[in-house]
Design brief:
Elements lengths: L15 H25 L3 H25 L5 H9 L4 H29 L6 H17 L2 H24 L18 H14 L5 H6 L10 H26 L1 H5 L4 H8 L12 H32 L4 H17 L4 H19 L2 H22 L1
Helix pairs in contact: 1-2, 1-6, 1-7, 1-9, 1-12, 2-7, 2-9, 2-15, 3-4, 3-15, 4-5, 4-12, 4-13, 4-14, 5-12, 5-13, 6-12, 7-14, 11-12, 12-13
């Protein structure tokens, strides 16, 4: 497993902001409100804010660990630290990314069918979407980062007005942020909220070796996470305020449903079908997250399996993800898989790698000090 050479570092640290933002908001805008309201009910906006605090801690840890090995991806440095045992968490991360992409490819196809292609079979949409993603990823990380940078501003142009118009339709009795005060909600709720921010650690774990000035990557990564956190917490707040906890729990995609019932003010009545704009943003969001994860997964296949050609590794990842998406039988199963994959990512992959790596680094440092003192 060769490290990334300095000449191959194609993006600047500032481009970590759109990468982290896009990786986070694409997942959170889909699964965040429903997951949080199902667990925290009226307290879900507060839990979302607490989850953002945890995500900040994890991304700081992830970036710091990646900066210790600036020429290695997480797949490489965890194996270097743990030896042969490191293949277990490295393969776990790779399998998690493949599962996540399969779920997103399915949700992408369902949404596209619902909005524009109601007579097109899901497998056809999945194959078309994966082919488009393959083409985008094979252009390289530099092209992806430029695309993401443009998308950030377009998404904010659509999502911020969507969230700002929500309070006019609120039922304020839906907000009881300190109820219920049971221990389970406040102990486990922030961890569930952390799952809604899933994606924030993908970029530093997999992409930092491609950043030229990697020592400056933390600040733009935190800015990207904060911008995504505002969107996810805002989406959770407006869906809860408009629908209430029971309706949100029974709705597959609460944010999209909210965009459909949104009442536009009189000067903006020409935007009465705002759900169309939101749907387009959502489709693009899923696509860019898929492309980011496909790039990292293809790198992982190269470094773990030993495939030399990036395009061959990418083709294998594309095939596995497409087949995995086609095996999902219906939207209800896909909805449940989103939650399960989120919890798997929090429990095994995104938290385990930096924590495990940090523990090994600290133990080795202590062992070196003991050896020097003796």
């Amino acid at each position: 497993m060769k490290p990334v050479k300095a000449g191959n570092k194609l993006i600047s640290s500032n481009e970590m902001m759109p990468l982290v933002y896009c990786a986070t908001v694409a997942y959170g805008i889909i699964v965040g409100p429903k997951m949080l309201v199902e667990f925290g009910r009226e307290a879900s906006p507060l839990l979302s804010a607490l989850g953002l605090g945890l995500a900040v801690g994890v991304i700081i840890l992830s970036v710091k660990m990646a900066q210790r090995f600036p020429h290695l991806t997480a797949f490489q440095w965890i194996i270097r630290l743990l030896g042969p045992l490191g293949y277990v968490p490295a393969v776990t991360l790779l399998l998690y990314l493949l599962a996540l992409q399969s779920v997103h490819a399915y949700n992408f196809a369902v949404l596209l069918q619902m909005l524009f292609l109601d007579r097109t079979p899901l497998p056809v949409i999945i194959v078309g979407g994966m082919a488009a993603a393959f083409y985008g990823v094979h252009l390289g990380i530099e092209a992806l980062s430029r695309f993401f940078r443009i998308i950030v501003y377009l998404e904010y142009l659509v999502l911020v007005p969507l969230l700002l118009l929500g309070p006019s339709s609120f039922t304020w009795t839906h907000f009881m942020p300190f109820y219920p005060l049971d221990t389970r909600t406040w102990l486990l709720g922030p961890l569930v909220a952390l799952g809604s921010y899933l994606g924030y650690a993908h970029a530093p774990l997999g992409l930092l070796p491609y950043v030229r000035d990697h020592e400056r990557a933390l600040r733009p990564s935190l800015v990207g996470l904060a911008l995504a956190g505002l969107i996810i917490t805002g989406a959770t707040t407006v869906t809860l305020g408009v629908f209430g906890p029971e309706t949100v729990r029974l709705t597959a995609y609460p944010t999209f449903e909210y965009s459909q019932v949104l009442r536009m003010p009189q000067p903006l009545m020409f935007l009465s079908r705002y759900s169309l704009f939101f749907g387009i943003v959502w489709v693009v969001a899923i696509m860019k997250l898929a492309m980011l994860d496909m790039f990292i997964s293809a790198i992982g296949v190269q470094q773990i399996v030993g495939v030399r050609n990036f395009k061959v590794a990418l083709a294998g990842v594309t095939l596995v993800v497409a087949v995995g998406a086609m095996l999902i039988p219906n939207p209800r199963v896909g909805e449940q898989l989103v939650v399960n994959v989120a919890l798997l990512g929090v429990a095994l992959s995104l938290g385990l790698l930096p924590l495990l790596g940090l523990l090994v680094v600290l133990l080795r440092r202590r062992a070196d000090k003991v050896a020097q003192s003796s």
